[in-house]
Write a structure and sequence with these properties.
Structural class: alpha+beta
Number of helices: 11
Largest sheet: 7 strands, mixed
Oligomer: single chain
Order of helices and strands: HHHHHEEHEHEEHEEEHEHH
Strand order of the largest sheet: 1-4-5-9-8-7-6
Number of strands: 9
Bound molecules: phenylalanine
Strand content: 15-25%
Shape: elongated
Radius of gyration: 37 Å
């Protein structure tokens, strides 16, 4: 069999490499002949050159063929893999579940949107003005102690409350305004009912002739729609720097068992002035609450830290509906 035939018949790259070095390697047959070329006449030289070039081409061609075959093989076996993966996927019957907080967030948003509030968002890293100062809480105000704050570089903070979004929205949109904000907030605290990262929802209405009873009516409507039952509500005086008067709202969760559920109040005139709204012309109310706490109540959970454990079994054990269940 001549060399060209041999090359053609090779089936794997190792054999090809071996044959190639036996021909073109250091002491390969062709290498040796080429070294001797000076002893040949012109015609023989030309013939040898042509033979050598032909062999090189043949090796190159054979190598390309083998590479192509290897690629086809790989594609073929990957096709098998893909089929196996798809087959496995088809066998999985366990549907995903909404995280209770996502579920709760969407229920809250639905109720508030139906009541005419529109959603606003803001940054989670806030400047001092929006998180504190514009909310009538200047530096050294003792109320800053109420919120154990994470400070980040440049004098900014991880926002401690969604109230910062009130300021941003009034600065941007002016009045009248009827909005709610929803998002993550951060404070340095951690126990069964506090997580350093939690979620707040905040409502804000500013218009002409807004009164405390508008606020009470909206809060009661919201809570009853959200919990899907009638609730007795109790209003206690409280203190927030950005509302005056400030109140705390409790609901009678079980007969005789009252739970504090949110803070609220009439927007402080200083806050309105800070965002260039005339408090003699416009009044408003704001209310804010922890989504996590509301979710714990609605779904009967006892430890807020479980929300962030990332354990799918916990979702299942607590009976959260699957995406498939949600019609
Ligand atoms: N921002 C307050 C808090 O985090 C809650 C609140 C919001 C109170 C709006 C009054 C009005 O404690």
């Amino acid at each position: 069999m001549n060399m060209l035939e041999q090359i053609k018949q090779i089936k794997n790259p190792e054999d090809l490499t071996a044959l190639h070095s036996s021909v073109f390697g250091k002491n390969g047959t062709m290498t040796v002949r080429l070294k001797d070329m000076k002893n040949l006449d012109n015609d023989s030289r030309a013939a040898l050159n042509a033979e050598s070039a032909e062999l090189r081409d043949a090796f190159k061609h054979a190598q390309e063929e083998l590479e192509h075959a290897a690629m086809m093989n790989a594609l073929e076996s990957q096709k098998l893999d893909a089929a196996a993966i798809t087959g496995y996927g088809l066998r999985v019957t366990d549907n995903g579940r909404l995280h209770p907080l996502s579920q709760c967030m969407s229920e809250v948003s639905t109720v508030l949107t139906e009541m005419g509030y529109s959603l606003r968002t803001g940054p989670e890293i806030e400047d001092d003005w929006h998180n504190f100062t514009a909310l009538n809480t200047p530096p050294h105000h003792p109320a800053r102690d109420m919120q154990d704050t994470f400070f980040v570089s440049g004098g900014n903070v991880m926002r401690t409350q969604t109230s910062a979004v009130q300021i941003r929205s009034m600065e941007k949109d002016g009045v009248p305004i009827k909005i709610f904000s929803a998002g993550t907030t951060y404070r340095r605290e951690m126990d069964a009912t506090h997580s350093p990262m939690f979620h707040q929802i905040e409502g804000l209405v500013v218009d002409r002739r807004i009164t405390l009873s508008d606020m009470v009516g909206d809060i009661k409507t919201f809570l009853e729609r959200f919990f899907e039952r009638e609730l007795n509500m109790r209003i206690r005086p409280s203190y927030f720097p950005f509302t005056e008067p400030s109140v705390e709202i409790d609901v009678e969760w079980k007969p005789g068992k009252w739970l504090e559920i949110m803070g609220a109040g009439m927007v402080h005139p200083n806050v309105l002035c800070n965002v260039k709204i005339n408090p003699n012309e416009f009044q408003g109310f704001a209310f804010g609450f922890g989504l996590d706490r509301l979710a714990m109540l609605k779904y009967g959970l006892s430890d807020i830290r479980e929300f962030f454990g990332g354990d799918a079994r916990w979702l299942k054990a607590n009976g959260f509906e699957t995406l498939g269940d949600k019609k």
